[in-house]
Write the structure tokens for this entry.
Amino acid sequence: MGARKHNMAERLKAERKNKSVARLRNCPSSPRKMRLVVDLVRGKDVNTALNILKFSRKDAAKDVHKLILSAVANWKAKNENVRIEDANLYIKEIFVDQGRMLKRIRTAPQGRAHRIRKRSNHVTVVVDSAVNNESNN
């Protein structure tokens, strides 16, 4: 491996250490409903985001709340020597993708049938430490 490629690989490895990822796959709600909840917490501090989700009336907020807690636990596993209070964690990225769609049939009048599409989604959260980003810049 060349020096430039090696340096790039080391830099990417150091960046991956600071942030952690958690994914929720095949969540049985539509992506549109989940995006409404995800937009509330994008870019916020982790504690603020958890409080927003805790008091949200949307049903999808419970799933996102658990997912953020999982991402924080993943970050804690990577950075054992750093306290969470000192790290100043925030949600760097959070996005929703469409998952698989279950197609069902509902009977309709006069011998017809209507198609029902039961949608699902995938949610990805990236949690990062604001302290490390300030020291790197």
